[in-house]
Each structure stands twice: as structure tokens, then as C-alpha cells.
Design goal:
Elements (H helix, E strand, L loop, with lengths): L39 E3 L9 E6 L8 E5 L10 H6 L11 H10 L3 E8 L5 H17 L5 E7 L12 H12 L10 E3 L12 H9 L3 E2 L1 H6 L23 E2 L13 E6 L6 H8 L6 E3 L1 H4 L2 H14 L3 E4 L6 H14 L3 E6 L3 H13 L3 H4 L10 H10 L11 E5 L7 H7 L14
Parallel strand pairs: 3-4, 3-6, 4-5, 6-7, 9-11, 9-12, 10-11, 12-13
Antiparallel strand pairs: 1-2, 2-5, 8-13
Helix pairs in contact: 9-10
């Protein structure tokens, strides 16, 4: 393949380069639309217009070796978001050696794939401008065959690094051509590597999730030695405390025989409260009272009242019950009907709860998906709102007992590997690219 650097079609971004090869071009000019049509073609988006964009340039082929590159901060210099909004077509190469190195990558038999998190693209104008910028980049390398994936908008977490949704789509595309990617001979290069000045570690975590060798732009394009000093931000499941399922353990989870009572669950969404009920309370005949099912708190209160007055009197209230005022409704019912009320506090952190949310919505292995209905991503506000309003349950609220329930993963080894991946962080939107 002819070297892309020999192409006659160049953007204004390439016109001036620093003499120092280790420095990117700082004389970037705002680009303009290509004078001729590029070979870039946008295919049908994955998961809708605001899911994952998918484009191809110059008829890329499927090979067993894949070179995956992050875009901003790796192939082109990252511009502050304010500058991107003011000058949406402005761009320049990360370094003058990028063009020749990309040509070398193709000549070595790699399929080139570009990937980018673009969660800040939230309206049609911004999206159109960004596509025009990608067309400019493609016009600068018309002989370079590549495939590009870009997760846009704020809702489709599955396709945003370090989640592996786009990689699964890539494997499907290659499989249609009868090609299985050799991960050991492929690699991922990105700038979000968890180093001291990096904005995040999402690129390195993505490579770990997929099982690809990882390199920073400095390592791949400039031949620098790997930097061993990096930190992977977010929840490291290996650091989760190991302990008993519940404390105190001096009293049983379920009385034998069961007695009339209210059991009030407290905790973030996605900490396994409903599964806990099914495993421990449903077999004993307890009734499941849940606001997601009933639709409102008033209906939950009514359901408990009916069960205490006319039913078995065995009730589990499976809601988040985050503060004293919410819990008071059920404590008052317990006093009225003169039954005990126990609090089961699911103590997992917001990071663990969000991690489980990502797993259930974005990474369930087939063995789990076959027995569980698909789950939507629970909105962030459900977690941040709980954290802001949470009041730790106390015995003097009127509880007979408070048990702390610890998170313990329950599944096969395959399922644990899927759960143990790194996922998009709950507070990462502003940093993602």
C-alpha cells in the first residue's frame, strides 16, 4: 500500500509540523471540508443513531491481526471540549510520525480499527460536525483502509470503553468473513493509560477486558519504553472485603418457623436485593413488596398493610429505603400491627452497585442471559440520589434488629470472569473520549 504520507490530499492540519519529532503539531488550523469526496462511508449505526457509529474507509479487509487505535490523544491531538465546540473541524496529527507508522502497520498485515468514546456528542449538529472532521482525517489518508467505531450520546454504555461492546461487533463482522481475530498477535494503542497525567485509564482497562496487548502512543509511535507507573481507577473487585454473608450471625436470616414480621431492605440498586429475597425468603412464604413492580410507595404501604391484616403477615419490602422518613412508614405499620420489623442493610458501595449495573446490562455471559431477562441500565441518578439522601439505619428508629448483608458473587467461573471486568465509571462522562 502506498504510504499515506505520500498522498496529495492533505488537511490544513498537516501543513506545519514542529521540528521536534517528539512534539505534536501545535500550529493547527481549522479544517475545511474535503475538495473531493473521501472514501469514508458510514454504515448502519449499532444500537440506533445514538448508540455506536460504524464507518469504513477504503474497503478495509478482515485479517487475523488487528491494530486498534484510540482516536483523540492517540492518532490526533486531543483538543479541549470548548475548542472542539467552537471549531468543530479543527484537528491535527498527534505526531508527525503517525502517518508513516500507520502505513507500516498496514504493510505488516494488520487490519486497522479506530475507536473513540464521544459521549459529548448529544445533538444532530454536533454529530454532523464530528463526522465532517472524520471525513477530513480520511481525506488525509485516502489509501489507508480502516474501520471506525464511535460511541456517542450518554446512554449506550455497552459500546463505551472500557466496556467491550464495539469489540464484540468487530468480531461478528470478521466472523462473517470467516476470520477469527488472534488476540495474541493484535494490540490496542491508547492514551488513557492510568499514568499520572492521563485523564483516565479506560484504554488500558479495555485492553485488559478483551485480552489485547496494550501500548501508549509514546510506546507505539515513538518507541519509548513502557511506563510501569500507572493506576487503574475505579472498582478493583480483588479489593472487595471477604466476609460472611451477613452479620450479626448469632440470629438466623429467617426464623424457623417463620413469624409475622416486616423485613425492610436498605441499599443501592443492583446489590442483589431481589435475588437475596428469592433465595432466602420466598421459600419460607414471605411476600415480595417492590416499588418497581407496584409502581409507587403508597401501593407498597397498602400492600404491606393488607398482608399484615388479611394475609400471612410475612412481608419483605424490597426497595432502597434510603432515609429515615421513608423507613418510618413501615416502622409505623409494624407498631400498629404489633409485629417486629427487621432491617437488612446491603452495605455495598456506590462503585460496586454501579459495577453490577454495568455487568447486568452490558456484559452478561450467555449462561446468565439464558435464564434472566435482559436488563436496562439503571440511570445514574438512582445511585447519586441514593448516596446524597442516604441515612444509615439505626436501632432507635424502631427496628427489632439490623443485619448487614455483604456482597458475595454467586455464579460460575465463566460468569465471575465476566463480572470481574472493568466497566465505565459512574463519574466518567466528562473525561471520556
Amino acid at each position: 500500500m502506498p504510504s499515506p504520507s505520500a498522498s496529495k490530499k492533505r488537511t490544513a492540519s498537516e501543513s506545519k509540523l514542529d521540528s521536534d519529532c517528539s512534539s505534536p503539531n501545535k500550529v493547527a488550523k481549522e479544517g475545511s471540508k474535503p475538495e473531493t469526496e473521501t472514501t469514508l462511508t458510514w454504515l448502519k449505526p449499532i444500537a440506533g443513531s445514538w448508540g455506536c457509529l460504524h464507518g469504513v474507509n477504503n474497503n478495509p479487509q478482515s485479517y487475523t491481526k488487528v491494530a486498534v487505535f484510540d482516536l483523540d490523544g492517540t492518532l490526533i491531538e486531543f483538543l479541549p471540549f470548548k475548542e472542539q465546540k467552537a471549531y468543530p473541524l479543527r484537528w491535527y496529527w498527534w505526531n508527525r510520525v503517525v502517518l508513516d507508522k500507520l502505513a507500516q502497520t498496514v504493510n505488516e498485515g494488520y487490519a486497522v480499527v479506530l475507536v473513540s468514546n464521544q459521549s459529548w456528542l448529544t445533538n444532530d449538529v454536533m454529530l454532523r460536525n464530528w463526522k465532517d472532521k472524520i471525513a477530513l482525517i480520511a481525506a488525509a489518508v485516502p489509501d489507508l483502509p480502516f474501520r471506525i467505531f464511535a460511541a456517542c450520546g450518554t446512554g449506550n454504555f455497552k459500546y463505551r470503553k472500557p466496556n467491550v461492546g464495539f469489540w464484540e461487533e468487530l468480531e461478528k463482522v470478521f466472523a462473517q468473513d470467516g476470520v477469527i481475530i488472534d488476540k495474541t498477535r493484535s494490540f490496542f494503542a491508547g492514551d488513557a493509560a492510568g499514568r499520572e497525567k492521563d485523564f483516565s485509564s479506560s484504554d488500558r482497562k479495555f485492553a485488559l477486558n478483551v485480552g489485547l496487548p496494550f501500548q501508549t502512543p509514546e510506546e507505539y509511535f515513538l518507541g519509548k519504553k513502557p511506563n510501569p507507573n500507572f493506576k487503574l481507577s475505579g472498582l478493583d473487585i480483588s479489593t472487595l472485603p471477604q466476609g460472611p454473608l451477613f452479620t450479626p450471625s448469632s440470629s438466623p436470616l429467617v426464623p424457623n418457623p417463620p413469624r409475622k414480621e416486616i423485613v425492610l431492605f436498605v441499599g443501592y440498586p443492583s446489590l442483589g436485593k431481589t435475588t437475596f429475597f428469592r433465595q432466602h425468603f420466598a421459600p419460607a412464604g414471605y411476600q415480595h413488596v417492590n416499588q418497581d413492580t407496584l409502581g409507587s410507595r403508597d401501593r407498597c404501604i397498602k400492600r404491606v398493610r393488607e398482608e399484615l391484616s388479611e394475609g400471612s403477615g410475612l412481608c419483605v419490602v424490597d426497595n432502597t429505603n434510603r432515609d429515615v422518613s421513608t423507613r418510618r412508614f413501615y416502622i409505623d405499620l409494624a407498631k400498629k400491627f404489633k409485629v417486629p420489623i427487621r432491617c437488612f442493610w446491603f452495605t455495598g458501595s456506590i462503585q460496586l452497585a454501579w459495577h453490577n449495573n454495568m455487568y447486568r446490562a452490558c456484559a452478561l455471559p450467555s449462561s446468565v442471559a439464558e435464564r434472566e431477562s435482559p436488563r436496562e441500565v439503571v440511570p445514574k441518578v438512582a445511585y447519586t440520589g441514593y448516596k446524597k439522601q442516604f441515612e444509615e439505619p439505626q436501632r432507635d428508629e424502631g427496628f427489632t434488629e439490623i443485619k448487614k448483608i455483604n456482597w458475595i458473587f454467586d455464579g460460575t467461573e465463566e460468569e465471575r470472569k465476566a463480572w470481574a471486568k472493568w466497566f465505565v465509571l459512574i463519574d466518567s462522562d466528562k473525561a471520556e473520549r
